[in-house]
Specification:
The chain folds into 4 domains: 220 residues, 3-Layer(aba) Sandwich (Rossmann fold); 174 residues, Orthogonal Bundle (Topoisomerase I, domain 2), CATH 1.10.460.10; 120 residues, Distorted Sandwich (Topoisomerase I, domain 3), CATH 2.70.20; 109 residues, Topoisomerase I, domain 4 (Orthogonal Bundle). 36% of the residues lie in helices and 17% in strands. It is built from 16 helices and 21 strands. A 7-stranded mixed β-sheet has the order 1-5-6-7-4-10-11, with helices on both faces. A 6-stranded antiparallel β-sheet has the order 14-13-18-15-16-17, with no helix packed on it. A two-stranded antiparallel sheet has the order 2-3. Helix 5 runs antiparallel to helix 14, helix 5 packs parallel to helix 15 and helix 7 crosses helix 8. The radius of gyration is 31 Å and the shape is flat.
Length: 666
């Protein structure tokens, strides 16, 4: 067992025989996010520093942890950096390691405390042995390290098993959400062999909140979250494995082979894109005309202002014959209308709105936004990002946060509201995404997203913006035709001093009474097809339709791209994605029925909100899913060849397109 000096924060003093000034790091490892997707630990840990050779460097040894009496409180976190932060917050911690996996020991109020971490999911859902073909329904949790890609997790699992032997009390301190609860529950039942444990609940990794969370833990796990999470894992697995096997079986019937997959949410999400493609493809452009009046400023005895002023007829004209009605207009009665408008600050960020704004202002994809936000959270700079809330509770002491932020953000001088502007959405687990007040020098996307969160938070405490909206109407009474132009002038920027707002200012003169019109122009235009979805707008539509969760929507989109079903920044379906949805629509429409998926989401939400009967509710949902999959299989298997042929057409078209692209490269 290697013992190292541990200097996690400036306010924690460690005394050891020899001080080593280095930040703890596990850069050489890979970790797993709560969604189960492998990612490099560099996304979670400090940036790796170049090694510097030192003379007389003290050697360290890897010694087995001996079993001792159960005299310690054992805190188990979801990720290594969370363990580091908690150990830092609770006292004078010392860092140990076994097989290069860190853990920490300290004393607090006379109690011995051990802090160690999982590395995301240490257990994965898989099918029980002895099942072949499809459908298959028997599942079990197995150690993640049995898969080669997650072999590194074995060291973490083994360490937790050893440290459990020293625990008189277990405290689960994984992320407080559905995935975190499943991770904690699996460690609890499969590693510690306990039925329940105390639960730390926190939204930031700041010293004060972690201390409060430790001193006031929940008495047990959040069983609503735990069972809702396990239910989601099981039904996603059941749909994913069985429907994917169904597709591959259909392709196999044609004499070909291709690894294909589809899931409970992937199918309906892909159909949304294919439907949009059809809408665009079937769109027929039509010509239309606009009628634009130009004032004769001299004849009207009005001083012409600088700039271009066009008075537009409010309706587009699709019948060219109607243009004749405008030809003889040469005068009109003008009237100017002014109206003051108050614009409230935007609400605090939930995850979806952060992803949308990050893409809007910085062109950062939703999945990358989530990754960066997760990193900022683990660095203690922002609160937990996987939240649906648009609320800022008083408990977080926002005024103190604003005071801390004022050292680095001069915009805090505009935060004069006593209470913030909030949105309607709530989340039972976490508040909106907010800065903790801590600061460190950042660059790249981390800096962009951090500053976006900070400024959004400050703006919610800033005053309303005020504008003067002006409209000039021209009424040609004889022909009964109207023309109008409008402009906006900001008279009080308010929160716009803090957060970016796209308002194009345009000042207008005040015009009233009779005016002369010099000419009417009729520019010809054509109607445009609907816009394609971007990753950000697709996430918004998935949320509106109740498909997926705040934590999974961006990864679902990524998977559809990785499978070769989607392509482009302005997203469109590939030939494979198009043919796949076409085949399923024709032969097995229930697979891509968003109502089925939404209904399952609602059932899982019921588990989340309930106070008892969790296991029974889980069984009911699982049984219903098995019945649906059984019905799908009976119908699907009678049409396998037809489905396979349709998908094969898409594969062949996609292959030809790829060959053409490769040819053009040379």
């Amino acid at each position: 067992m290697a013992v190292e000096s541990f200097l996690p924060t400036t306010d924690v003093k460690i005394t050891v025989e020899k001080k080593v000034k280095e930040k703890p790091s596990i850069e050489s490892l890979t970790t797993i996010e709560s969604s189960g997707k492998p990612m490099p630990a560099s996304n979670l840990e400090y940036k790796k520093k170049k090694k510097v050779r030192r003379k007389n460097k003290a050697s360290t040894k890897n010694v087995k942890i001996e079993k001792t009496k159960k005299d310690s409180i054992f805190i188990i976190t979801e990720k290594p950096q969370a363990a580091l932060k908690i150990a830092s917050a609770l006292g004078n911690a010392r860092k140990y390691s076994e097989n290069k996996v860190p853990f920490y020991e300290l004393e607090r109020n006379g109690e011995k405390i051990i802090v160690a971490s999982a590395v995301g999911h240490l257990f994965n859902l898989t099918y029980s042995k002895g099942q072949t073909g499809w459908p298959i329904f028997k599942t079990e949790w197995t150690p993640a390290h049995t898969k080669k890609s997650a072999a590194f997790t074995k060291k973490y699992l083994n360490l937790l098993k050893k440290l459990t032997k020293r625990a008189k009390e277990i405290i689960i301190a994984t992320d407080y959400d559905i995935e975190g609860e499943v991770i904690g529950w699996n460690v609890l039942r499969f590693v510690t062999k306990k039925k329940d444990a105390k639960r730390m609940k926190y939204s930031t990794l700041t010293k004060s909140e972690l201390e409060k969370s430790f001193e006031n833990p929940l008495d047990s796990l959040d069983w609503g979250q735990a069972y809702a999470g396990e239910t989601r894992h099981k039904i996603d697995w059941l749909y994913g494995i069985n429907l994917s096997r169904a597709l591959m079986s259909a392709i196999k019937k044609t004499g070909s082979f291709k690894l294909l997959s589809i899931g409970r949410v992937q199918g309906p999400a892909l159909k949304i894109i294919v439907d949009k493609d059809k809408e665009i493809k079937n769109f027929k452009s039509k010509p239309y005309w606009q009628a634009i009046a130009h004032l004769d400023w001299v004849a009207s005895k009005i001083k012409k202002p600088s700039g271009k002023y066009e008075f537009k007829h409010p309706k587009d004209i699709f019948d060219k014959e109607l243009l004749k009605e405008f030809e003889n207009i040469n005068e009109a009665e003008a009237s100017t209308i002014k109206k003051e408008e108050t614009i409230m600050p935007p609400h605090p960020f939930d995850l979806t709105s952060l992803q949308r704004e990050s893409h809007k202002f910085h062109y950062i994809s939703p999945s990358n936004t989530l990754k960066v936000a997760q990193k900022l959270y683990l660095d203690g700079l922002i609160s937990y990002p996987r939240t649906s809330s648009q609320k800022i509770p008083k408990e977080i002491e926002p005024k103190k946060i604003l005071k801390k932020l004022s050292k680095n953000f001069k915009e805090t001088k505009f935060a004069t509201r006593n209470n913030p502007v909030e949105g309607k959405k709530t989340d039972p687990a976490h508040p909106s995404i907010y800065p903790t007040g801590e600061f460190k020098n950042l660059d790249g996307n981390e800096k962009k997203i951090y500053e976006l969160i900070v400024k959004r938070f400050i703006s919610s405490f800033s005053e309303n913006a005020k504008t003067i909206n002006q409209r000039i109407n021209l009424h040609a009474e004889k022909e009964n035709k109207r023309f109008t132009t409008s402009g906006t002038k900001i008279i009080d920027k308010g929160w716009m001093n803090v957060y970016p707002a796209k308002i194009e200012e345009k000042s207008l003169p005040e015009i009233n009474g009779n005016v002369k019109i010099s000419k009417i122009e009729f520019p010809e235009k054509i109607t445009k097809p609907p816009k394609r979805y971007t990753a950000a707008s697709l996430i918004t539509i998935l949320e509106k339709k109740g498909l997926g969760t705040k934590a999974t929507r961006s990864s679902i989109i990524d998977i559809l791209f990785e499978r070769g079903y989607l392509d482009g920044k302005s997203i469109q379906a590939t030939p494979l994605g198009e043919k796949l949805i076409g085949a399923l629509e024709k032969y097995a429409p229930i697979i891509i029925d968003e109502n089925l998926t939404r209904n399952l989401e609602e059932k899982m939400e019921e588990i989340l909100k309930t106070k008892s009967g969790f296991e029974e509710k889980e069984k009911i949902i699982i049984k219903r899913s098995e019945e649906i999959i059984t019905d799908i299989s009976k119908d699907f298997k009678t049409k396998e060849l037809e489905i396979g042929k349709e998908i094969l057409k898409g594969l062949e078209t996609l292959r030809l397109e790829e060959q053409e692209k490769n040819t053009l490269l040379f």
